[in-house]
Structure formats: structure tokens, C-alpha cells
Design goal:
The complex is a heterodimer of chains A (150) and B (115).
Chain A: E1 9-15, H1 19-26, E2 46-51, E3 58-63, E4 68-78, E5 82-87, E6 97-106, E7 109-117, H2 123-131, H3 134-149
Antiparallel strand pairs in A: 1-7, 2-3, 3-4, 4-5, 5-6, 6-7
Chain B: H1 4-11, H2 13-22, E1 27-28, H3 29-33, H4 40-52, E2 56-61, E3 64-69, H5 71-101, H6 107-110
Antiparallel strand pairs in B: 1-3, 2-3
Classes of the chains: A alpha+beta (150), B alpha+beta (115).
Amino acid sequence: MPDARTLAIRKEVTVDAPLETAFRVFTREIGSWWPLPTHSVFTDRARSVEMEPWAGGHIVETSEAGEQSVWGTLTAWEPPHRVSFSWHPGRGPETAQEVEVTFAPRGDGTLVRLVHTGWEKLGDAAEEQVRSYDGGWDHVLTRFVEASQR
Amino acid sequence: MTYAQALTALADPTRREILERLRAGECAVGELARGLPVSRPAVSQHLRVLKEARLVAERRQGTRNLYRLDGAGIGELRAYLDGFWGEVLMAFKDAAEQTAKGGKRDARRTHTGHP
């Protein structure tokens, strides 16, 4: 849900998997689960996405024709606790925002938190809109539930 | 990925400065240009980009055009990004849990054909 203080996008999910597994699947194995047809630059022509597992490494999507699109560059690589990267899929790196993903043990599983920052300048307008968008958030949450039951 | 236009518009320092000024309230182009290190036509051009990206809205008052932040457009951008990462995390959760269980899966098929 929105954070009124920084207006970042904040999401979290608890995963029934050990810390190391969760981190590895999110990073080195990103190509095995990222929903490419709907969440990519090449959409239905997308073939794969890879994360180069080191600071300075790229997140790169490749199309069926072999074209490549760099989504971002790793700014922190701290297995198995934290990875952060610049984020500019389909845009130039000068337009990048920042995404940080952290992993922490939670019971037998792992709590994964994602924060997307870089557009806080929109400040008050966004905050005001968030308050008036309660219906919108309900709709979004319904979609999450549907997605999780697929 | 959609909303690239809004996110690109947001990345320019002058446009960010314009947005920052509009947080204080509605403003005409002349007032916006004052104090910015760019010409008035350049400010107008930036405003056009921000309007097309639905970050800024415009209305006419007498002979002047007044600009303000487009709360609806900004809210949709937020909702889009929130939904985007929610769906990504759900797909990730599914994959991590199947991996932890040691189940075999064909991940490329798992997510093909979604709308």
C-alpha cells in the first residue's frame, strides 16, 4: 500500500521457501518465472530475461529475433538479503528510477519487500489521489488475489 | 511496458522542477518560466510533454492558460505500478514455492497465455 511519507511504491509478499532459495529464484532464476508476455518490452515476442548476478550487472530481456533491451543495472548485490537496480525498461537509462528488493527470514519462509522510488516529486497530488482512489486499490487487490490463484 | 511516456517525462530535471512548482498550486506559464533557467517557449514545450503524459492538466481563464498537477493521471500511474509489482511478486512467489518443494515445473509454459 502507498506510503504517504515518501510516496514510494511498496509491496511485500511472504514466500514459503527458505531465504537462499527465495533470493536465488528472484535473481539468477528470474527468467524462469517473470511474466514476460504481460510485463516486458517485447511482450509476445519476448524470449527471455536474465539478471547478471553482480553489482554493475544488467537485467536484460531478449526477443525471439535476438534483439535486446536493458531494463536496468544492479546497484547492490548482497546475497541472500538484498538486491537493488536502476529501472528503465523501454526507456533510456537517463530516465531510470530505483527498485530495491530485500529478503528476510519469516518463520519457515521468507519475507520479500520491494520498494520502487524515484518519482516522489509528484508528492501531494499523488497522496491526495491515493486517498480518493480507495476503489482503485480494491480493484488492484482483487487482481492480486486472482493472480495468486491461477 | 506502458506508462513509459509518463516515466520518461518525469525524468527530465526541468520538468521535475516544473512539477515541484506546481505542487504549490495552479500556475500560468509566465509565472512558471520566471526563475527557471530556460526560455518561456521551452517551458511551454515541457508543459506540453507533461500534459501528454497526463502529469499536468490545463484550463483556460480569460486570456491565460493555467496549469496544475493532474491528480487523476498521477493516481493511475501509481495504481499501474502498484499492480505491476503485485503481479510480478505473485509470479515470483509461485515459482519460489514450487522450487522449494522440489516440484518440477515448466515455467515458460506457466505464464504463457495470460492476458
